[in-house]
Amino acid sequence: MVVQYIKKSVALLLLVVFSTACVQEELGSCDFPHQLTFHYTHNVESTDLFSEEINHINLFIYDKSGQLIKQESIEKQQLTAGNSYQVMLPVGEYSFVAHGNVKDAFDYQGVESLQSAVLSVHRDKQGGTSPAFKDMFYAVVNNVKHTIHKQEEATCLFFQKNSNLVRVIIRHINQVAALPSAKCTISAVNGDYKFDNTIFGTNRIHYTPLSQTKSNDLTTEFSVLKLWDGDNSNLNVTELKGDSIHTWYNGNLSSLLLQKPGTDLDLEDTFEVILNLDNSNTEVTITVNDWEVVDHNSGLQ
């Protein structure tokens, strides 16, 4: 009972302190603390992996009319217990938009208005992504009422991952045979996002590999932004023979991944595509996350 009384007294004292300067003014001109907490539970582990996955947050706060009130860059070290962060805001209704891990590989445009704001991944003049791009997270909560009477209530922002690790492996059925010269590319129309996380524009981007290694297998890894059923993503895997090109696979990446039953492109974020070459290097069998894809002829040329 004593502890409860002390807590209530402290809360009342804080309220008096914050409101004293506003006695002679309208409450709308006064700032009061608003607590935020950040989470990342939408993953295959169904566990809050925020602390493990997200190091930096870009936070945007918009008023009821959609105008930018505050923008903050937050490092993980600035968060308090429970991945909490406090902002000071006047009484009102707000939308909170947050992006995780976009610090070095993304650009913003039109952020003064919630309706016009766009987030875009860096790319060169040919549409190639920056090697610095690795992953991206997104969270939004709308219609949050901020009053002087709700000091202890936190607004929770739950992140979703907007990027995937796609590993493409070219493997010969004869493990000791030399692999042919090969090239793997991934492209998609998914590099620009409105602040409601919908795709903006129709510009195709070409993903720069994170890494490529060659031993018995040729493995190329890509970080690829949001994928969905019916998108314009493309996976192209070819063999270079002098001036000629033999195509092992050329088709929609998402459609290929979805051939494995139960695949959830929103929840899962790691995909492994293995092309197993025959002895003549002309035919392949394909597996996606250990599931053999039988019907893939639509992608071959």
Strand order of the largest sheet: 15-16-11-19-20-21
User: What oligomerization state is this entry in?
Assistant: single chain
- Uncertain runs are 1-20
Elements, N to C (H/E): HEHEEEEEEEEEEEEEEEEEHEEE
Our count of helices gives 3
Overall domain count: 2
**CATH domain class of the largest domain:** Mainly Beta
User: What fold name stands as the CATH topology of the largest domain?
Assistant: Immunoglobulin-like
What is the straight-line distance between the termini?
A: 76 Å
Helix content class: under 10%
Q: Quick one: overall form? A: elongated
Average pLDDT, rounded to a whole number, is: 87
Q: What's the number of extended β-strand segments? A: 21
Q: Determine Rg (CA atoms, Å).
A: 25 Å
| β-strand amount | 35-45%
Characterize the biggest β-sheet: 6 strands, mixed
Query: What would you say the CATH architecture of the largest domain is?
Result: Sandwich
Q: Structural class of the secondary elements?
A: mainly beta
Structure description:
- There is one protein chain.
- The protein has 301 residues and is mainly β.
- The chain has three helices and 21 strands.
- The strands form five sheets. It has a six-stranded mixed β-sheet, with no helix packed on it.
- A hairpin with a 2-residue loop joins strand 17 and strand 18.
- The longest helix is centred in the first third of the chain and has 19 residues.
- The radius of gyration is 25 Å and the shape is elongated.
